[in-house]
Design a protein that fits this description.
The protein has helices spanning 2-19, 51-72, and strands at residues 22-34, 37-48. With 73 residues, the chain is of the alpha+beta class.
Length: 73
Amino acid sequence: MLVRTIGFIMIAIDVVMVAYTGFTYFTTEKVVDLGVIEIQQKKSHPVQWSPYVGVALIIGGIGVVLIGKNQSV
């Protein structure tokens, strides 16, 4: 039962990975610091993956569900 649950969670995460192929997060970096004067810059860091990775993981999740189904019988 636990194996099938893990498989369904994998499939749900992988569907999101196929729909959204990445995200961007921002960090603030101090550029200049002269006493009371401070200049900061926001830098973007994109994180992206191929939709093929999500499809491959969906197939793996289906395999985990099928393995869990065979174990419970």
